[in-house]
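Hey,

Quick one before I head out. I ran the complex with fe (ii) ion overnight. Inputs first:
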Amino acid sequence: MSFSFYVLSDTHLYSETLGTRGDAYARDNQKSQKLLAGSRSVIHDVFDRLLADGSIDTVLISGDLVNNGEMSSHQEMLAELTRLQTGGKKVYALTATHDYDGAHRYEGNEKIPTNGAKRTDLWEMYFPFGPDKALSVHRESHSYTAQLAPGYRLLALNDDKDGSGHSGFSPDCLAWILEEIRKGKQDRQFLIAMTHHPMISPSVFYSLIGKNDLMHGREAFIQAFLSAGLPFIFTGHTHMQDIARSHRFYDISTPSLVGYPGTWRVCTADRQSNTIAVQTQQVPPEALQAMEQQFFGMIRDVVKYAAADNDRFAEMGRAFSLRPEFSRKHKHFITFCGKILRLMRVDEIVVAVVRRLYGGNPRRDYRRTLHFKV
Ligand SMILES: [Fe+2]
Ligand SMILES: [Fe+2]
């Protein structure tokens, strides 16, 4: 029997009780590639759509559940997940680095620290959404395995920290993962793994400017996973739509549910043929339009600031993994490029390139069912 499931990522719910007006909110919203206000409504509508589909009862979510760890955002996300689970879905979630620390709210011109979750709070908070169904847990990393269906086993691998402050797996966590893969193979299970940070870059562009966001030590992990018999993993974090391959290992990246291109995955694993089919669904046109306005408005502003205001450009560059130090170090080059782009009026070309980078290849990633030999 084959097994079908949904994969969502980076739901980044932002509670509107934290503020949706004023200069401070506007400044952060201007550099956000995803929706802040309106994010819950998108999540609610997508969950309605999943609930209406009686043929699939399993939903995986690969981290960054809320905007920035705000307790009010967590409470709303927990309510949405409870609704999904009460409606008959089994939810298996990972938390990630946006789910703790750094919580703020907005009031007029001020961005004010607010009640937020600590990393140590998250296991208990999200216990009903995966850990409660665990076969085995690696408590320190917040990782777990679970039996999704007869013959299909989940490895939910939390890569928040590898012990040295980077994303990745500590030696102890890696030993646990390899033992779980071994047990899975011994039990003749089809293994479905997910983590948050990318193990393969979704594009050359990301390798250049977002390389610090790629999982630390990924090459060694890929080799270890392949040797143990795990040939693919679902990831999030980049907010990009992509399926990348390195050696014989696949990284299937799902974008943010609340930002362009507003997609999620519908997968069917088949342990008989040893394949997994990956299809993509997208938010309805009105929600997609709001996401496009948010994302491409931000890109046009980035081009504008590249030409005229390096400080603001450095601040905005964080939205797409560009480090402020990089922006400042290459100030003259960035200003030059920004001016050329403005002079040539090529904002639309930049938008088209970014659309392709983040949205993936619509022919390959949206309409075609991909099969992976595993
Ligand atoms: Fe994210
Ligand atoms: Fe992330």
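The two ends are 16 Å apart (CA to CA).

Talk tomorrow,
K.
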